[in-house]
Amino acid sequence: MPPYHPTETAGDHSTGLPRVLRLGVLVLFGFLVACETIPVSPPSLPPRTEPASAESAAQAETTGEYVVAAREYERLAEDATPPEKQRYLLQSMEALLKGGQYGQVRARLAAIDLRGLDPALLARKHVLEARLAVVEGEHQTALKRLDEAAKLRNLSPALLSEIHEARAQAELALGNPFGAVRELIVREQYVAGAETVAENQTRLWRILEQAPREQIRSERYLASDAVLAGWLDLALAAHDHVGNTVALGQALNEWRRLYPAHPAGAALLETLTAGAPALVGRIERIALLLPITSDYRIAAEAVRDGFLAMHAAAPESGRPKVTIYDLGPDPALAPQVYERAVREGAQIVVGPLGREATDAVIRASGLAVPTLLLSHTEEHPPGPARLYQFGLPPEQEARQAAERAYLDGCRHAAVLYPEGAWGERMMNAFMTHWQRLGALAVASQSYAERNGDYSEPVKRLLNIPESEARKSAVEKKLGQRLQFDPRPRQDVECIFLAADARHGRLIKPQLNYFRAGGLPVYATSHIYTGKADPVHDVDLDGVQFGDMPWMLAQAGRIAELRNRLQGDWPHVHTDLDRLYALGMDSYAILPHLERISAEHAARFAGVTSGLSLDRDGRLHRQLSWARFRSGVPRLIDRP
């Protein structure tokens, strides 16, 4: 199977649009996500009744359930008195910040009153304000807040460590990597434990790995501090001897002679010559593994086109070479393609695309170089590897819909979902996470997509038949017909609707008709075709949904990028546009993977969303939220 080169495939977009629309849905729901049937949960889940605990909150943070953690801290705050109350509230804000709920943090953080309390609490609040400011691009504001925090007296080493960590993030955001390195060097004085020291040094080293060699040399010329000079000389040695472990080993021996008391840990030094995969210096060769000649060709081409568009937009100097390898129709052959890509010089592999091919690669070959899988997997590679996973699983969107509804104040939800495996997965994802948040699912109801009239499932969801039965009983008793408007159940505060645009346009008017139009309705990106269509989407008015900034931006950087990159790409404003964005971010994030994995709560601002990494290397998307108004999606708040 020959490698597939970008220059050999330019302009191959001859597929007709109607077929694209049909296959787009198939690809999104049948290919990128495993299609096993998941058992349906009971129609009602009880709220959590166990008492809140700091341990359960910390555990939720560890597993990336940040909104769950924030809820636990808020429950603890409800039963606490100052200053513990304010401490728990600040921990809740920190969890929401880690979870990308910036609007919630912005609204709530200022309301936490710390007057007359320990200055350490005010310092923590300033640190959180600084982290929020970094995310929002207000970097000088962030540094100002951190200066205010550092001036407060009697701060603990742990809090001073947080201040310098946040300063490092602000310096990086300002494009000053060496300022960040200095802050992390100072931070090491305040961290406790060998593991935390090693983590801090790893983060420092990842920054130096990504810095251009000439900038490191210039900084070294000016460095007077011995610790900083040692780090810079170590980075120069690593840059000068990439791929030559013998020469690098000799350089490290000389470095040890010059810096015998340098704090750089032995474990970090050993990794430089151990042959573990690393993104040292500039990426020069990328392999992209896609099933071009398969039933999923259209999906693969959309990812490819987005990937190559970002590659073409990169500065020509230093632009890596991209080789596309065709996986073909048989996922079992993916390991052979992966091994060939590595053998032919790939420094990093992007792909395979698809669950079966991904699992086959991990089981068969291990990972010889850093790899960004374009699917989520439960398999674990043997041996040392830098493995990252990036996809568009709809279950992630359902869980974020649960979080959005919860943060908006809803505690009693009803779920309406389509029959079949996809609908059951969406219902399960929402209801399970809803329960984790301590909220109650009071009803769930499936509907058959093949039917054009959804009045019956909507009525059952809202308990209208029970209301109609009461009316019939009263009429029978009185012997006369009554004027009657059926009342929906009163215990529903919001509705989660799992539906695409075609079915959502038919279901939302039914909710309005049965007097549930005032209830907030939450949905996933599937409710929006990707193209503004006010004539048809007016029936979706009021529905809130999470989607990519790429699909929602009407102005600003992302809108300009769309106009510049897509040109006459034939599948704009279809389901395939989301796969195009997946390809774009798959390319753009490569130089940042090490930083995101090493930095505390770091995020990458992509076109698919704000991206963060969990401890298993999975990239999580923090969606933007919009509401249909006059048939057009309008952003609700800043991301």
TrEMBL record:
Cite the record's Low complexity compositional bias ranges.
50-61
Pfam families, alphabetically?
Answer: LppC (PF04348)
InterPro entries xrefs: LpoA (IPR007443), Peripla_BP_I (IPR028082), TPR-like_helical_dom_sf (IPR011990)
Any one Gene Ontology molecular-function term assigned to this protein's record: enzyme regulator activity
**Keyword annotations from UniProtKB, A to Z:** Cell outer membrane, Cell shape, Lipoprotein, Membrane, Palmitate, Peptidoglycan synthesis, Signal
Asked if the record carries the keyword Membrane, the reply is yes
Which residues lie within the region annotated Disordered?
42-61
* Gene Ontology cellular-component terms listed: periplasmic side of cell outer membrane
An annotated GO BP: regulation of cell shape
Q: Does the keyword Repressor apply?
A: no
Coiled coil feature spans? none
Protein name, as recorded: Lipoprotein
Q: Which organism is it from?
A: Sulfurifustis variabilis
